[in-house]
Amino acid sequence: MTIRLLAFGIAKDIMGGSAADIAVGEQPTVLNLKNALEQRYPELRRLKSFLIAINNEYAPDSRHIQPTDEVAIIPPVSGG
Amino acid sequence: MIQVQLSGEALDIQACVNYVSAPEAGGIDVFIGTVRNATKGKQVVRLEFEAYEGMAIKEMQRIAAETMKQFSVFRISIHHRVGILQIGEVPVVIAVSAAHRAAAFEACRYIIDTLKGHVPIWKKEVFEDGAVWVAAHP
To answer: Which tens digit of pLDDT belongs to each residue from A5-39?
Structure first.
C-alpha cells in the first residue's frame, strides 16, 4: 500500500516537500509507517519525537491505516 | 460557548473579549502571546508560524471543550495567527469568562499550556544567520 503523507514544519524540510508517497506493506499500522519513514528519512530520528495523525487526530502505534485516511506527520509542536 | 479561530491576519484582542463577555461573568482572563526579540541571548528577526489547519482547529476545540468540563467557566475564545510575525506582534489570544476569577485564571493558563503541547502549529525562529524550528531537536 502507498500512503500519501502530509508533512509540516521541520518534517517538510527533511522530506523535501509538503507531501510524500510512502510505500508500506499491506494493512499497515502507524508503527509500520513510522519505521518506513525513519528508514527513508534517517534525519527524522534526530528529532525530539514525532507523531502520526490520522484524519486530524493523533493516532497510536497500533492503529491500522486505511487507504482513505488522511495521514500526516506531526513533528514537535511549537504553537502559542 | 467556544470560539476557535486560525487567522493569517493581525488578531483582534477586543473581539475575543467581546465574544466571552456575558452578564453572568464576574471576570474575564485574557492571555496574549507576543513575539519576543531574543532567544537564549540571540536576536530574533521574526517568527514564522505554520499550521496543519484542520487538525489545529479540531485540537483547539477539543482543548476548549476539556476546559469547560474541568473548570467553571462560561465562554472561551482561542485565536491563533499563522504566517510571518514581527517582534511584538501577537500570535495567540485566549480569553475566558467565569462567574469567579479563580476559575478564569486557572482555565486560561490550562488552555495556553495545553495548546503549546498539543496543537499542530509550528514556529520557526529567524535569526540574522539562519532559522530554527523551535523545540524540534533535543
So the answer is: 999 999 999 999 999 999 999 999 999 999 999 99
Assess contact for B100 and B40: CB atoms under 8 A.
no
Residues 6+ apart with CB under 8 A from A6: A18, A19, A70, A71, A72, A73, B52
Q: Which residue in the block uniquely carries the three cell numbers 492571555?
A: B31
Residues of B in contact with A78 (CB under 8 A): 116, 121-123, 133-136
Counting beta carbons within 10 angstroms of the beta carbon of residue A35, is it exposed (0 to 12), middle (13 to 18) or buried (19 or more)? middle
Say which DSSP state A29 is in.
B
Low-confidence stretches of chain B (pLDDT beneath 70): none
Would you say the C-alpha torsion B111, B113, B119, B123 has a positive or negative sign? Answer: positive
Query: CB–CB of B73/B98 below 8 Å?
Result: yes
The cell for B92 is: 495567540
Q: How far apart are CA B85 and CA A14, in angstroms?
A: 24
Render the burial of A1-19: b for 16+ CB within 10 Å, e for the rest. eebebbbbbbbbbbbeeee
Among partner residues B58, B121, B133, which is closest to A79 by beta-carbon distance?
B121
CA distances from B133 to B35, B39, B66, B126 (A): 15, 12, 28, 9
What's the grid cell of residue A3?
Answer: 500512503
Q: Is A53 in Cβ contact with B120 (below 8 Å)?
A: yes
